[in-house]
Amino acid sequence: MTPAFLIFMIIGTVAVASSFLVISMRNPVHSALFLLLTFLCVAVLFIMKGAEFVGAVQVLVYAGGIMVLFLFVVMLINVRHLPDERVLSAFWKGGFAVGAAVFILLLTVVRPGVYADPAPNSAQKLKTVSTYRMRRTHMPDGSVVRHRVRRNTVEGNSEAVAMVLYREYLVPFEIASLFLLVAMIGAIVIGKRELGAIEEETAPDFILDRVETEKEVKERFSD
Amino acid sequence: MIEAAPSTAAYLMLSGTLFAVGLIGVIIRRNMITVLMAIELMLNAVNINLVAFSSRLGSLEGQIFAIFIITVAAGEAAVGLAIIIQLYRLRSTINVDEARELNG
User: In this model, does residue A36 exceed pLDDT 70?
Assistant: First the structure.
């Protein structure tokens, strides 16, 4: 057993165990912290496979951004937990059955011998940056032919990902940025507080109290 | 890359396990925030698959798509949490089983 495989076993065990704890904790804050642990373990696994940039993005975006968002929402809505409240859904038996079936399916689909041989120089290819240049060649008959030459240099994973992302996948990248803009606008529009006449009937008391207080304050200061 | 990194099959098995755990969490939990966390777990399992095959094939496309999936997960978390906040304002619950007005 190589040291790398030992590290993989430890990190993978921690990832699976903490993912089990994510879905079994009663308090959402504890779930969020175990989810953070899972994300960090997965980032380590990415880096072990040579995907250093994806590992860094995983830590920055998931552990830094999404996790803070989750914790904000958990603390914002402040759900009170009754001790005898049921955690599981009404059809939890079916859920376990479907999950076990998918688990067995995914494990039987994996056939260890098929993926055993890695492609030649696969570790080098993940770090190779290809640059293109036009080169002129003077032909013997006096004409000049321009043709493209490719030069491969081994730089690093981040440079290689950047070259592919900004050259071959430029349009999907721009669409992704547009998607983020739309998601941001949608989140603001959905999450905006808007108390109409219909909603006041079902709004919780503390919001109505707050609205009343805001009205009083406004009236007092408008005089 | 670490020399003699674990095989692709080991990564695929780990990814399948994480995906199944996330799927179970999506189905059995009643707390909507935990359901969203389980969805993030499933997306992460898919990312493990993509990165493992990227390393196996010596091609960077898998890592590019992993980055796109992370982008989509960020947007999905933002919109989903906004929906949860609005549901809590209107119904003062985040229980999945009680939000069934669209149930025919």
Answer: yes
CA distance A222 to A206: 24
Is any Cβ of chain B less than 8 angstroms from the Cβ of A98?
yes
Q: Which residues of A touch B61 (CB under 8 A)?
A: 164
Best to test chain B binding among A6, A13, A45 (most B CBs inside 10 Å): A45
Helices (H), chain A: 3-24, 28-48, 52-57, 67-77, 92-109, 122-125, 157-167, 170-191, 197-202, 205-222
With CA atoms as reference, the chain B residue closest to A30 would be: B34
How is residue A205 written in tokens? 């008391």
Question: For residue A118, is pLDDT > 70?
Answer: no
CA dist., res. A29 & res. A59, Å (int) = 19
CA distance to A72, A116, A142, A158, A191, per residue, from B9 (Å)? 37, 8, 57, 25, 43
A120-129, A136-145, A151-160, B31-40, range with the lowest pLDDT: A120-129
Element (H, E) at A130: strand A128-138
Chain A residue numbers touching B82 (CB-CB < 8 A)? 186-188, 190-191
Q: Which residues are A151's β-sheet partners?
A: A131
Give pTM, 2 decimals. 0.81
Which residues of A fall within a CB distance of 8 Å from B18? 15-16, 19, 38, 42
The answer to whether A121 touches B13, Cβ cutoff 8 Å, is: no
Chain B contact for A164, CB < 8 A? yes
Distance CA(A30)–CA(A13), nearest Å, equals: 19
pLDDT recorded at residue B1:
46
Residue B18: what pLDDT? Answer: 95
**pLDDT tens-digit profile of B59-72?**
889 999 999 999 99
State how far the Cα of A127 lies from the Cα of A162, in Å rounded to an integer: 11
Torsion of CA B17, A99, B45, A34, to 10 degrees: -80
Instruction: Give the pLDDT band (50/70/90) at residue B2.
Output: very low
pLDDT of A83 > 60? The answer is: no
